[in-house]
Amino acid sequence: MDFTPLIISLKIAVVATVITFFLGIYAARLIMNMQSRWKWLVDGIFTLPLVLPPTVIGFFLLLILGKNGFIGKFLLNMNIRVIFSWQGAVIAAVVVSFPLMYRTTRGAFEQIDMNLVYAARTLGLSEFKIFWKIIMPLSLPSVGAGTILAFARAMGEFGATLMVAGNIPNKTQTISLLIYTAVAGGDMELAMRWVFVIVVISLSAIFAMNIWTQTQSKGGGV
Amino acid sequence: MSLYVDIKKSLNGFKLDVSFEAGKYTTGLLGASGCGKSMTLKCIAGIEKPDSGLIMLNDKILFDSKKNINIPPQGRNTGYLFQNYALFPNMTTLQNISIGLSKHQRDKVVMEKIEKFGLSGLENRYPHQLSGGQQQRVALARILAKEPDILMLDEPFSALDSFLKWQLEQEVINVLDGYNGTTLFVSHSRDEVYRICSDVAIMSNGKIDTFGDKKQIFNKPTTVATAMLTGCKNISKAKKINETTIEATDWGISFVVKPHFDDVNFIGVRAHFLKIALQNEINSFEVEVMKIIESPFAITVMLTPKGKSIPIYWEVEKPYWELVKKTGMPKFLSAQPDKILLLK
What we know:
The complex is a heterodimer of chains A (222) and B (344).
Chain A: H1 4-33, H2 39-51, H3 54-65, H4 70-77, H5 86-111, H6 114-122, H7 127-156, H8 159-165, H9 175-184, H10 188-218
Helix pairs in contact in A: 1-5, 1-7, 2-5, 3-8, 5-7, 5-8, 6-7, 7-10, 9-10
Chain B: E1 3-11, E2 14-22, E3 26-31, H1 37-45, E4 52-57, E5 60-64, E6 69-70, E7 78-81, H2 93-98, H3 103-116, H4 132-144, E8 150-154, H5 162-177, E9 182-187, H6 190-196, E10 199-204, E11 207-213, H7 214-219, H8 224-229, E12 234-242, E13 245-248, E14 253-256, E15 266-269, E16 275-276, E17 284-294, E18 298-305, E19 312-317, H9 318-327, E20 332-334, E21 340-343
Parallel strand pairs in B: 3-9, 3-10, 7-8, 8-9
Antiparallel strand pairs in B: 1-2, 1-4, 4-5, 5-6, 10-11, 12-13, 12-15, 13-14, 15-21, 16-20, 17-18, 17-20, 18-19
Helix pairs in contact in B: 3-4, 4-5
């Protein structure tokens, strides 16, 4: 069995998860501190990829990243082509997994007792210190869970990836895409093998998430 | 005066308009829930921003809307004790106390505070491993380690059961005795305020209703809000009849009071100042017993003046109540002229 699709899938999902991790936390913090009356709109845009059909996301990404898109043009000038590359798949995975990370983290931030933040301020702690020493540690269980959810979502991404990165064997063909190709070509046995792999990975992710939440709620003094 | 506050803030239809001065002793802010007590403290601490006004602490301007000064909470050096103590749950006692301190302050102050607040042996415990009393001590130690210019206690006992409350109150009184700066104590409990503070500001609907020496305020309230918050259960609209007589219109009773009063629209009679009387005694009025409410050590009797439906409350201690029960329910009650509160 050729494991290239597994490696491609993992590579895309891991890189995407790392990016989503920081973007999601940053966005959650941004929204939390936002006073503007347009907060609901920004929140809506951040959440949109969760509810939009992946093909629509793929469509938008093609518009932006394609050779006539404003980012695509800029990247082409620097000789970088993201369409039909694994980097394109990473971007697609980031966009679809971002809302999961953003929403779980934001939920955790909002559950923190504001008196803790107020107390920290009167004690003279800088906002930076308050975030990293108090808010983040207290949100860790949810941040961890959000990360695992984002990883699972990135791993299973299909529609947007297909549109942005294509279905190029040994280059952008992830497990999800391979299963589709195999079924379309009538190779049910090959499809079945990869279905098994993806089920195992997904189950492990859920299992990891449960263990994480349990250990976090037991120890750590929280 | 070391603290000067004169601020206005409106928030969701609620208007806060507070001005007072406080010296280096304990001033109580007494008021019902939602009257703006906590908001006032939060404005002083810099957690909330007033719409306009001036806040000065020891000649340092903390907030001045005219000069556009609004020092962030980090730069105000205030000590704020929250009702739930707001200890950081992810930090030990030691970390909680030392987090706000600079490195060289740390070594000097932290161990001294741990010693002083009886926290030795609890240094490495997390807040959830401490009792309520220990948590309060950690919170106080954390605040005092920074040597704040003002101490603000925001309903520190209101979430506790009564036995613990008593114990922690004594601890706080000890701490306050050893602190020589301005202290503001916010509470809705008149007993706590009376025991802990020397000056009292009575707050009602976002304004300071009365401000002054606690004894003066508790003995001779002059406004309805103050009478109610100091525990007066019986208040009626009133009409002046002549120089020594006033009619409580809600109850349909005329009372002889101490002479020379003006500007009186209400009168109040504290429930425990009512006495059993004979028909022809001064200020006696006929009553009917409606309901008897029993507390552990006292009895409150709800009565109505003859022919009226607005109740009057009469409070007696239990041993006396046993005597009353033997002789039968009273037909007449009275209040001495000097016990009747004349209110604006």
